[in-house]
Design a protein that fits this description.
Blueprint (H helix, E strand, L loop, with lengths): L1 H15 L4 H10 L4 H18 L5 H21 L5 H23 L4 H5 L4 H10 L2 H11 L16 H18 L3 H21 L3 H28 L9
Helix pairs in contact: 1-3, 1-5, 3-4, 4-5, 7-11, 8-11, 9-10, 9-11, 10-11
């Protein structure tokens, strides 16, 4: 895994730090004709060799240079305003998959040993649930009430759902690591940030909507954490 970690470090440095505005603009405009595209790929290969400090990895670094250049060029060629976000994530996933493959070739990674851990699948079950499934369940609960007259605030579309997912992941992590104080801190922080919304809202229904949504989100994450701990036979309190 050490080799993969080093390759990922290089990827993060070159892809997200060693790119300046002129480079990005030229790559976007010229695509495969841009010299910066090839410089970017070359930096990936050279920094890989530098951090590994071993010429035995030369062909691996060469594959990284060639593949990164081609993938970035194709992304820029196919990119439009509508698919930019999608192509960004696809681009990153393909890059990372190649790095994993190269690392596995030189230092075989025991992928199955990760899933063989007793806690892997219970964790996976609850983590999957507290993302989008929990959001949908909470939305279904709100169908009990007519919320059509709640004025839509000027907020980012879908931002609330992602905030809910992040907070549930934090709460789940707090429960399974027995850091219950994090939940209190998170609830207090969210109350402070939401205070302005509730103070300015002249509709009691909107205030109740915020409270109920927050409580359902917190309770679902806490419940998943507690169920995991009970399933694995672990204590819910820190041992003295």
């Amino acid at each position: 895994m050490t080799l993969l970690i080093k390759l990922l470090i290089v990827h993060l440095i070159v892809d997200f730090t060693l790119q300046w505005r002129a480079m990005l603009a030229d790559k976007q405009n010229q695509r495969f004709r841009s010299p910066y595209l090839y410089l970017h790929g070359l930096l990936h290969g050279l920094l890989t060799l530098a951090i590994l400090a071993d010429l035995n990895y030369f062909y691996g670094a060469l594959i990284i240079f060639v593949s990164h250049t081609i993938i970035d060029g194709l992304k820029l060629t196919l990119q439009t305003k509508n698919n930019e976000r999608l192509l960004f994530f696809v681009d990153q996933l393909v890059h990372i998959a190649i790095l994993v493959g190269i690392a596995h070739y030189y230092q075989p990674i025991a992928f199955l040993s990760i899933t063989a851990h007793d806690y892997f699948y219970p964790h996976l079950l609850f983590i999957i649930y507290i993302t989008f499934p929990a959001s949908i369940v909470i939305q279904k609960i709100f169908l009990k009430w007519d919320l059509s007259d709640i004025a839509a605030s000027a907020s980012l579309v879908g931002a609330g759902a992602y905030i809910g997912i992040i907070e549930r992941l934090i709460i789940y992590g707090a429960v399974v690591t027995l850091n219950w104080n994090i939940i209190g801190f998170l609830l207090a922080a969210k109350s402070i940030f939401r205070f302005g919304d509730m103070r300015d809202a002249h509709d009691r229904k909107y205030t109740e909507y915020i409270f109920v949504g927050t409580l359902l989100s917190f309770i679902s994450a806490i419940l998943c954490g507690v169920l995991f701990m009970l399933y694995t036979g672990q204590s819910l309190t820190s041992q003295p």
